[in-house]
Write a structure and sequence with these properties.
The chain is elongated and about 60 Å long. The longest helix is centred in the middle third of the chain and has 13 residues. About 2% of the residues have low confidence. It is of the alpha+beta class and 414 residues long. It has a 4-stranded mixed beta sheet with strand order 21-22-1-23. Strands 2-14-16-15 form a 4-stranded mixed beta sheet, covered by helices on one side. A 4-stranded mixed beta sheet has the order 4-5-3-13, covered by helices on one side. It contains 14 helices and 23 strands.
């Protein structure tokens, strides 16, 4: 198992850019199955999750070529409408294939997806939404069987603004006859990126970024060349890396419009911020102030940044309160931070963090974002920290040790 070894105590300084967003790339890859011609995705990130999604497309009959920072997908010969169980268990986002398979083949068979163990993350919203579009869903023996012979436009009311359900329904509806309206749709920036991609293929989707998405079904789609949006979670992680080390970093690709809630908490913590359209420069204070954080769907504070800001709170001056409202089991990193000397009290969905001093220790990543938080904590800790489970972190960060090393951190993979 790969391990990150971090020697703390070095303020990060410099400028760095971020690549394409994992959470945008994965549904776009899935949507390529719907294309009527070749698809080129520029700035393809070297992430294990993205590679697994390409493997799934190849298993379904798409011809894929990855290289030179892009992926070329030719879906013309695709024939598969049954998800490969082994691959789908490797990542949660495999569930995105249900909508495209139904849109193209009018049938789909899938297993329950894998991914990080951060909560139940039920897919009932996906299934109920598909049923509202005329899909007959049957669950048996750990499998999900979907008959989309009656797929057509319809009204979907989501009980919760689920990003995955919103995207799956957009992809299923784009070639379904009639109009589909998704009420209480997720508003995350990645929804807008998927809309732009589907429309680049010839779809007619509007409303992304609001709570009401309208999909006017078209009979067929074409091909496209597309560059996904920059990764706002990686950008936020790098900004917190600057804050936790008392440094100054400029992050290219950090779009303030996508990071509003994160930037607000960094300001509350005492950080100076210079915002441009496509860049944020952070200057850390002499001592960070505590903050109160409550995760919410966009435009609220993202659950994918909760672990990272908890690491920052561990070295702030005072007590911080963190409430996790999105997932019920996303505090695994708290126990690992305690191994580094953090003063954290956790109960249910709430954590109280009393800031102080961190010391190096051997800890283990339990999930993607929690692992990144442990690396951040190691940057601020006295001595050497070793974080096991680098492979989990690789699911969402393209060479985290290189990114941080470029800013002056002492991080190596062993």
């Amino acid at each position: 198992m790969d391990v990150f070894r971090i020697t703390g105590g070095y303020p990060l300084r410099g400028r760095i850019g971020v690549g394409a967003a994992k959470n945008a790339v994965l549904p776009i890859l899935a949507a390529a199955l719907l294309a009527g011609g070749p698809v080129d995705i520029q700035g393809f990130p070297a992430l294990s999750d993205a590679r697994h999604m390409v493997d799934i497309l190849e298993t379904l009959g798409c011809r894929c070529r990855v290289g030179d920072g892009q992926v070329h997908i030719d879906p013309e010969g695709a024939w598969g409408w049954e998800m490969p169980q082994e691959l789908s268990k490797k990542l949660r986002s495999s569930i995105f294939m249900m909508g495209p398979m139904l849109g193209r083949f009018r049938k789909a068979v899938a297993t329950y997806p894998g991914g990080c163990e951060i909560g139940l993350r039920p897919i009932d919203l996906h299934l109920r939404g598909l049923a509202a579009l005329g899909v007959k869903v049957r669950e048996a023996h750990g499998m999900i069987y979907c008959d989309g012979s009656g797929l057509r436009g319809g009204e979907v009311h989501l009980d919760f603004p689920s990003v995955g359900a919103t995207e799956n329904l957009m992809m299923a509806a784009v070639t379904a006859p009639g109009n589909t309206v998704i009420h209480n749709a997720a508003r995350e920036p990645e929804i807008g990126d998927l809309q732009r991609f589907l429309n680049a293929l010839g779809g007619r989707v509007s409303g992304a970024g609001t709570g009401r998405v309208l999909v006017r079904g078209v009979s067929s789609l074409g091909g496209a060349s597309f560059r996904p949006m920059p990764d706002r979670i990686v950008a936020g992680t790098l900004l917190i890396a600057g804050a936790i080390t008392g440094g100054q970093v400029a992050v290219e690709g950090a779009r303030p419009a996508d990071l509003g809630a994160v930037l607000d908490k960094l300001r509350q913590a005492g950080c100076g911020l210079e915002e441009e359209e496509d860049r944020v420069t952070l200057t850390a204070p002499a001592r960070l102030r505590p903050v109160e954080v409550s995760t919410q769907p966009f435009p609220g504070f993202p659950t994918d940044m909760q672990a990272q800001i908890m690491a920052m709170c561990c070295v702030a001056q005072g007590a911080s309160l963190i409430v996790e409202n999105v997932f019920e089991n996303r505090f695994a990193h708290a126990a690992q931070l305690r191994c580094m000397g953090a003063d954290i009290w956790a109960s249910g969905r709430m954590c109280l963090v009393r800031g102080g001093k961190l010391t190096g220790a051997k800890v283990a990543a339990r999930d993607l974002r929690g692992g990144a938080a442990l690396v951040l904590a190691g940057l601020a800790a006295e001595g050497v920290t070793e974080v096991e489970g680098a492979g989990l972190i690789d699911r969402g960060y393209e060479g985290l040790e290189r990114m941080l090393g470029g800013l002056g951190a002492r991080v190596e993979r062993i």
